[in-house]
Amino acid sequence: MRIAALDLGSNSFHLVVVDVDGSGAFRVVGRDKEMVRLGAGTLLTGHLAPDAIERALAAASRLKRLAEAQGAETVLAVATSAVREAENGEDLLDRIGHDLRLWPRAISGEEEARLIYLAAAHSVHTAGKPALVVDIGGGSVELAYGQGAELRWPASEKLGALRLSEQFVRTDPLGARDEARLQKRVEETLGPHLARLSREGTPCVVGTSGTILAIGGLCLDIRGDARPESLHHVVVAADDVRRARKLLVGTDLRERKGLPGMQGRADTIVAGVVVLDTVLQALGGPDLVLCEWALREGLLLDYIHGHPLLVSRAESCPDVRRRSVAALIERADAHAGHARQVAALALALFDGTRRRHGLGPPQRELLEHAALLHDVGHQVSYPRHHRHSYYLIRNGDLRGFTPLELEIVASVARYHRRARPRKRHPAFRALPRKARRTVKVLAACLRLADALDRSHRQVVRSLSVRRRGKRLMVHCVADGDAELELWGAARRKEPLEKLLGLPIELEAVRRPAAVLLKHPAAGRIG
Questions:
Q1: What ranges make up the beta strands (E) of 421-469?
Q2: ω before 104 within 30° of 0 (cis)?
Q3: Is the distance from CB of 353 to CB of 472 less than 8 angstroms?
Q4: CA distance 332 to 375
């Protein structure tokens, strides 16, 4: 099923087109946006000007045609601040319905906040902590506080970047007096919400919307970090946002237009960064997690949640990482039984050698995901499936992972066979030093675990690792003849041996007869 969501915002219109599978998971197949500036003038006068209406009709028409050209069966559409506040907002919605056969609905600010929270909760990993989701739109700012799938309270205030720019940005660069007036308005308006948050403890702060993503990208530029292909789940510090504020407030429009990512926002980004910085400072300076999902994805999720048969998978697997991993395995038609078995064996190897490699729970989790996904490249071809697995993991719309985590998972899967991690490989060389060592250790565990299910029949049911003198014994419990597995493992154990600094000996006990099987090649190396 292919559906689309259209967000008729005060600053820009956004379209996303997705394929929804039977589990309720969806995959993005198309995105587009148009800078409409529907709220320009409207947010202060309360009336949509004729030229704004015509711009809106033209943009909505183009985006609807694009959705239909991509095969969308249903186009969901909502309108936000500019339309819900305008006295003739309903007239615009009627025109869109009559002319385009598309029927958007104007939603309240609190409903907008609820949908944004829904999107963030499904795409950002907050490790079970309470979260505050902040969205700075053109006309309003939405705040949504909750934990996991539970939204505790939503709020919406008239503090959008376009609105505040028209009200307070009178000089270029912004003068100190106007900046102080702008900050005071933000503090007074958001004060009750921020005070409530202070009493409940500083939450994880998640930022969505084009304004916040543009600021987040600028933060990376300021601190000299390369921008990843996706800003989703990138973390920036409150101090980074403060530096971005100083830069943007101190530059004029021409200079701001020359900054990366400011296309179409250079004239409103100053107000936006003052709002964001004020919120973070009021909360004590927490880190900000960037989120590329927002209102339109929340609208899709809400629609899918209204169809229980489509969301059974999501409800049974609330963890965003595991859910997106499971969806990719299903799309790739991978051998799920083999993947689960290899993951279990890889984790057993990781746990049994923890004292030697020194990695912890975060790396263990990444190993599990890489093991579950290591064979998705079979969908493309077998001979180079490890490389195809790398590509599919990097581009498979996996959610809840930072860009670095995603690169580690993809690299571990890529090195589960054939070539080992080498600095001559550009993607591996680009990783930070600690991440390169993590990839080496995890890939070595995965390589050996994959060999221990070489037949894909889950013969080796479990394993344990123990030190015996100057070697490590990997003791396997098998449900049948494990000769093929031991043969394969003996050929794949060397990377782990080198990393741990000890030779590995493999042995298997067959259940229930407890007959010891030792492969002749599975002894001490060198």
A1: 460-468
A2: no
A3: yes
A4: 9
Alpha carbon 148 to its chain centroid, in Å, reads 15
pLDDT in tens, 393-418: 999 888 899 999 999 999 999 999 99
Task: Tell me if 283 sits within 8 A of 204, measured CB to CB.
Answer: no
**Distance (Å, rounded) from C-alpha 516 to C-alpha 50?**
85
pLDDT at residue 516 tops 50 = no
What's the start-to-end Cα distance of the chain, in Å? 57
Q: Which of 177, 182, 173 is closest to 247 using CA atoms?
A: 173
So what's the pLDDT on residue 327? 85
pLDDT in tens, 473-486: 999 999 989 999 99
259, two tokens: 């900054």
> Counting runs of H as helices and runs of E as strands, what totals does the chain give?
23, 15
Instruction: Report residue 361's pLDDT band, with 50, 70 and 90 as the boundaries.
Output: very high
Q: Do 142 and 213 touch, CB atoms closer than 8 A?
A: no
Q: How far apart are CA 378 and CA 53, in angstroms?
A: 50
The residues that bridge with 471 in the sheet, in sequence order, are 468
pLDDT tens profile 142-167: 999 999 989 999 999 999 999 999 99
Task: Give the number of other Cβ atoms within 10 Å of residue 197's Cβ.
Answer: 22
Total residues belonging to the chain: 526
Whether pLDDT at 506 is above 50: yes
Sheet holding 460-468, edge to edge: 460-468, 471-478, 504-510, 515-517
- Provide the whole-model pTM: 0.83
Inter-residue contact 329 to 372 (CB < 8 Å): yes
472 closest CA partner among 356, 358, 360: 356
Nearest-angstrom CA–CA distance, 17 and 427: 30
**Position of tokens 């990444």?**
366
74-117 pLDDT, tens digit each: 899 999 999 999 999 999 999 999 999 999 999 999 999 999 99
Q: How far is CA 270 from CA 265, 356, 502, 522, in A?
A: 9, 51, 58, 65
Q: Are 298 and 7 in contact (CB under 8 A)?
A: no
List beta partners, residue 26: 20
Question: Using CA atoms, how far apart are residues 309 and 442, in angstroms rounded to an integer?
Answer: 37
Q: How far apart are CA 204 and CA 221, in angstroms?
A: 23
Token pair in block for residue 382: 């077998």
> Of all helices (H) and strands (E), which one includes residue 410?
helix 403-414
Which residues sit opposite 473 in a β-bridge? 466, 505
Q: Parallel, antiparallel, or unpaired: how do β-strands 204-208 and 288-290 relate?
A: parallel
**CA-to-CA distance for 81 and 110, rounded, in angstroms?**
11
Fill in the amino acid letter for 158.
K
* Residue 203 preceded by cis peptide, ω within 30: no
Interaxial angle between packed helices 269-282 and 238-249, expressed in degrees from 0 to 180 and rounded to the nearest 10: 150
